Threonine synthase
Amino acid sequence: MSPREWTPVCRACGARNPGTWSRCPGCGGVQVLEGPRTVPTPSGAGGLWRFRDALPPVRHEITMGEGGTPLVRCERLAARTEVAQVLVKNETVNPTLSFKDRAMALGVSLARDADTPGVVAASTGNTAVSAAAYAARAGLPCRLYCAAGAAGSAKLRTAQAYGAGVEPVDGDFSSAHAAAAELEAEGWFPLTTTFRNPYLAEAHRTVALELFEQTGGSVPDWVLVPVGAGPLLVGAYEGFRALADAGRIPRVPRMVAVQVDACAPLVDAWRTNAATVTAANPRPTVAGAIADPLRGYEDEGVLTLEAVRESNGLAVSVPDEAVLAAVDDLARHEGLLVEPAGAAPLAALAALAADGTVAPDARVVLLATGHGAKE
Ligand SMILES: [Zn+2]
């Protein structure tokens, strides 16, 4: 397979930009990757690269055994929510305790091939930890930009333990984004896990491919995903769509984007059936990992809205109190310690089952994205 078969294409101006790793160099628009999204024959040992046939090819496959996460059947949660089957895809057991490790394994592998001076991300959370660890594994410098107010958080201190440089920037998350972009202009490889780097969401297709294996080739009715910008939802949706296009499953599951009431720009656009996304004015929330106002890259949220619509899914938000109750329920009834953002799908399921949107005979997968130990 030639690397040329995977090409970033600008959604705004239509330009094809091979050899780029970020937004469109011509107009600044968000790019999507065109490529052969096939259903792979899994090969080799564990980790993301079992599915190498389905991923953009790399010369250096960096791995720490990410992916291959358990699918945990939760009978008590099924009984409490009164739906037939609740399965938790437990992404908290990845090497740095979040789903981001899938994207980072692919990202740092591409960065090694690109002969870049280092990797850079704007992040205060799971991305920062994962980028730092995988950069160390790849032997690449890693620089992380964060808003000054977020410096010193537990997750950033963890990233520093892996040797990453943390650079506080005056202002908010958008200011951190701008600082990261300046380093990109010097050739540093972007690992910010919105849709800024069009390659990274491809890694999340492996979530769907694993679910297909783990459910014996069946397909759940609903897949609930905690969403900031939403590359995990889009990646998983693309994985299911490839399986459906190949005739391996009869249909894609209905994808549910779950946000918190305090910051829900995608849900706002969903409710008004808008074609575009407006940046949110966020309030404080316990679910910081998904509290992304999308300011300055509203167009990236549109990719997630489209995947939700194409799957006949939904976008819903839940209050912080329901999120905290879901954290407790996962821990006390199923033994799963999940960070608040990662528990938001259970809160959403409870609401959707109570109002009849999710039927009693439904089979539901919740993506538990990050471990509670890091909070
Ligand atoms: Zn463009």
